[in-house]
Write a structure and sequence with these properties.
- By secondary structure, the chain is an alpha/beta fold.
- The protein folds into 2 domains: about 120 residues, Rossmann fold (3-Layer(aba) Sandwich), CATH 3.40.50.2300; about 100 residues, Winged helix-like DNA-binding domain superfamily/Winged helix DNA-binding domain (Arc Repressor Mutant, subunit A, Orthogonal Bundle), CATH 1.10.10.
- Helices cover about 40% and strands about 25% of the residues.
- The chain has a 5-stranded parallel β-sheet, sandwiched between helices. Strands 6-7-8-9 form a 4-stranded antiparallel β-sheet, covered by helices on one side.
- β1, α1 and β2 form a beta-alpha-beta unit.
- The longest helix has 18 residues.
- The protein is elongated and about 55 Å long.
């Protein structure tokens, strides 16, 4: 039976290691990250069934990380761990899309029960494909960085591939400019925003062979990959 894969992001080294070992004993394949940046990197590199995120962390807090994960995968379940018990923090967590919220200190058994309950609720929901995206006449192979139409193949750069994947995962929805910049360029400075505009122009050129597929500019917000058919 395939082990369910968990991403655990916890900056307390002792707690993180104890949780990782406990969850692995209970049958989960658990990847541990020590801060939000490492957590995002691991999420981009592997497929997970559930994320457990501490809120107060260096480099990137849990709420910010959850928003970036949600941009990449709208369906993966998220459980927050927090030393805070303030109602406002709980509400913010659920607004972001948390499936559960566990306040420290907690027992290992409680966390295990919450993980099991969330997985039972979400097991029937299949995440979007992580590698191949089909839209219009195109097939986009993310890992190979290839955009294919009929027998023609276009090799994409890393930035083009990352940007096109975000657009595909938000098909017919607005991709927020700042969120895309933070995910791909790591900050939303003016210089990086101009760089992203160049890559958007390149992608538009690559997509020209199918006139029904367009990247629209949503002024003041971001971009939207749409199928006009």
């Amino acid at each position: 039976m395939k082990k369910e894969r968990l991403l655990l992001v916890e900056d307390d080294q002792n707690l993180g290691q104890i949780l990782k070992e406990y969850l692995e004993i209970k049958g989960f394949s658990t990847h541990l990250a020590r801060d939000g940046e490492e957590g995002l990197q691991k999420f981009q590199e592997h497929n997970f069934d559930l994320c457990i995120l501490d809120i107060m962390m260096p480099k990137k807090d849990g709420f910010t990380l959850a928003k970036e994960i949600r941009l990449l995968n709208k369906q993966i379940p998220i459980i927050f761990l927090s030393a805070k018990s303030m109602k406002e923090d709980t509400i913010q967590g659920f607004r972001i899309g948390a499936d559960d919220y566990v306040t420290k200190p907690f027992s290992m058994e409680e966390l295990l029960l919450r993980i099991s309950a969330v997985l039972r609720r979400t097991r029937g929901i299949k995440p979007k494909a992580q590698n191949i995206y089909k839209f219009g006449k195109f097939r986009f192979h993310y890992h190979q960085q290839i955009l294919q139409i009929s027998s023609e193949e276009q090799k994409l750069t890393s930035k083009e591939s990352e940007l096109l994947r975000l657009l595909c995962q938000n098909m017919n929805q607005t991709l927020d400019r700042s969120e895309a910049l933070i995910l791909i360029w790591k900050d939303d400075s003016y210089f990086n925003a101009r760089s992203m505009d160049v890559y958007i122009a390149r992608l538009r050129k690559h997509l020209k062979p199918d006139e029904n597929i367009q990247i629209l500019t949503i002024h003041g917000e971001g971009f939207k990959l749409v199928s006009l058919k």
